[in-house]
Design a protein that fits this description.
Order of helices and strands: EEHEEHEEEHHHH
Oligomer: single chain
Largest sheet: 5 strands, mixed
Strand order of the largest sheet: 4-3-7-5-6
Low-confidence stretches: 1-52
Mean pLDDT: 79
Helix content: 40-55%
CATH architecture of the largest domain: Roll
Structural class: alpha+beta
Length: 252
């Protein structure tokens, strides 16, 4: 909402520095008027509907006047193309793109307004939007921002990720288990909830998290015959099972 001062309470010629020979008139809240979004939309509709639409039956072409940033661009189409249902909103948008020197592939940046109505659908006929062949009609053009270019990929993004070795996969699973799940399990074991429902809920949550995030992932790791990786997986499975047993002891 915009605030504009209303100077109706000050007679005579106005000056931004006050009037000489008289006391200044205090400005109060009642001395302001407000312009709402509805006022702006109504003004747009009035300006659009006040365009020059004088019939001219002798014209040889259909003329539309595109207005952008206080500049008018007359565009000519084949005579009678509007009334005959040949001209579409998409044709008008393309003509606006040519006049405003905007690439055709970016023509959707152009918003067309006729009598305050947004002409969105390129497939709509011009006559369906109220345009006529024998009148000059003003169409307001508003151009949106151009699309931002996509950032260039970094060298790291351009390179395919290096496949992890079996030991690398096992280390990643072990790290998640030790840094995220084990601390929660220890807190639960040392200070289990007194409420039975909360106790069972936490036990179930921790147990299912370990099964899904650790044991199932360990089972999916192929050791490829590497004895070190096979032993490492075996040790991790044993460690995880021991933790599950401790969790079960709490709820017995």
């Amino acid at each position: 909402m915009s605030r504009w001062p209303s100077w109706s309470g000050w007679p005579g010629r106005l000056s931004p520095f006050g009037r000489s020979g008289s006391d200044p008139v205090p400005v109060t809240e009642g001395g302001f008027s407000y312009i709402t979004d509805e006022d702006l939309e109504r003004s747009l509709q009035q300006n659009s509907s006040s365009s020059d639409e004088t019939p001219n039956p002798n014209r040889k072409s259909d003329v539309l006047v595109l207005k952008h940033r206080r500049v008018s661009y007359p565009v000519h189409f084949k005579g009678g193309s509007i009334d005959s249902g040949i001209l579409t909103v998409g044709d008008i948008r393309d003509a606006a793109a040519e006049k405003l020197e905007i690439p055709f592939q970016e023509s959707e940046r152009i918003k067309l307004f006729y009598r305050g109505r947004n002409l969105k659908d390129n497939s709509r006929l011009a006559r369906e939007e109220g345009l006529r062949s024998n009148t000059n009609s003003d169409i307001l053009c508003v151009v949106g921002e151009p699309p931002k270019p996509s950032p260039s990929p970094t060298p790291q993004q351009m390179q395919p990720p290096t496949p992890k070795s079996p030991l690398g996969k096992l280390d990643e699973i072990a790290s998640k288990f030790h840094t995220q799940l084990v601390p929660e399990c220890i807190r639960f074991i040392q200070s289990p909830p007194e409420d039975k429902a909360k106790l069972e809920f936490e036990h179930k949550r921790l147990t299912e998290s370990i099964l899904a995030q650790v044991l199932l992932k360990l089972d999916a790791v192929e050791t490829d015959g590497d004895p070190e990786a096979r032993q490492r997986r075996k040790d991790l499975v044993k460690e995880v099972q021991n933790m599950l047993s401790k969790l079960d002891e709490v709820v017995k």
